[in-house]
Specification:
The chain has four helices and 17 strands. The protein has 298 residues and is of the alpha+beta class.
């Protein structure tokens, strides 16, 4: 019995040594093959970083003054979705610019307020009027843009009520009616909480639910629809702001493209995001449209 056991143990040791040698050879062979397939490292010199550009955002305020937000574009690695929007705006705001809007050969200078926001008062904003923006920054150069003030369209009716989905999420369900003029029109509807007072956030509307609607299927007719604003949770008793804007075709496409790509607020200023723009020498969009705003308590 002992002799047979000793012979069996020698055979097991022999097999173990053979397997070990095979494993080492296999690992060495695989490593050699992997390394032989790797290309030689490329030398990277003279990396060109994107040029910093002026980013323009604009809106007509409820008092019919014009607000323009100026920021600088940032590198793709300088911020992310976890960045605080207000802190980011403070870091990238352009506060050294001379800003003016020219209407019918009359120049209206804009006053600097804070965090890259400039305000113009007394500018004639009649529908169909062409307005020319000029921005001159000592550090970031000059940009210009032109836009036409769009004709305002107003709600005939607008209502909102709480909506609970199958996952018990509370949203706002909005229904509205408008009378569409004969010409082609492009609408943007925004739903957001009504307590926001910050001017920068009001210009950018990062928390707003935006719904683009064009009138191809209902041109020059009365139009009604109902939709759920799913940007955040709204509860009974909350005050929400529902707004309607009739915008230009170019701005409509600009916003629609951002929505389709789920563009985050940070990415509006980031490189290398290239979206349609009417800002010559810069980014963003210069638009002037009157907005019908209704505050509703759910």
């Amino acid at each position: 019995m002992d002799a047979r056991f000793e012979m069996w143990r020698r055979e097991v040791r022999k097999l173990a040594r053979t397997f070990q040698r095979f494993s080492v050879r296999s690992v060495c062979l695989l490593t050699f093959l992997f390394l032989s397939c790797m290309p030689d490292p490329l030398e990277v010199d003279n990396l060109k970083f994107p040029e910093t550009k002026i980013v323009v955002s604009s809106m007509i305020l409820p008092d019919h003054s014009v607000a323009v937000l100026l920021t600088k574009s940032i590198g793709a690695l300088e911020a992310n979705k976890e960045s605080d929007p207000q802190a980011l705006i403070s870091d990238i705001a352009i506060n050294d610019a001379d800003v003016s809007i020219t209407v019918n050969d009359s120049v209206y200078p804009l006053k600097f307020l804070q965090d890259g926001v400039y305000q113009g008062i007394g500018i004639p904003l009649m529908e169909g009027t062409e307005c020319h923006l000029k921005v001159s920054s000592q550090k970031y150069g000059q940009v210009t843009a032109s836009t036409i003030v769009q004709a305002p369209i107003y709600f005939d009716t607008v209502q909102a009520e709480p909506y609970i989905n199958e996952y018990n999420d509370y949203w706002a369900e909005v229904s509205y009616t408008i009378k569409d003029p004969p010409s082609p029109n492009y609408y943007l509807l925004n739903v957001q909480e009504a307590k926001r007072k910050d001017l920068v956030e009001n210009i950018l509307k990062p928390d707003a639910y935006t719904r683009p609607v064009d009138d191809k299927t209902f041109n020059s007719q009365e139009f009604s629809e109902r939709f759920a604003a799913m940007n955040k949770k709204f509860y009974p008793g909350d005050s929400i702001e529902v707004s309607l804007s009739n915008v230009s075709f170019d701005y409509f496409n600009y916003v629609t493209l951002r929505l389709e790509n789920k563009l985050d607020l940070v990415e509006v200023f980031s490189e290398p995001i290239y979206y349609p723009t009417n800002v010559r020498g810069g980014r963003g969009f210069f638009t002037l449209h009157l907005t019908d705003v209704r505050v509703i308590v759910l």
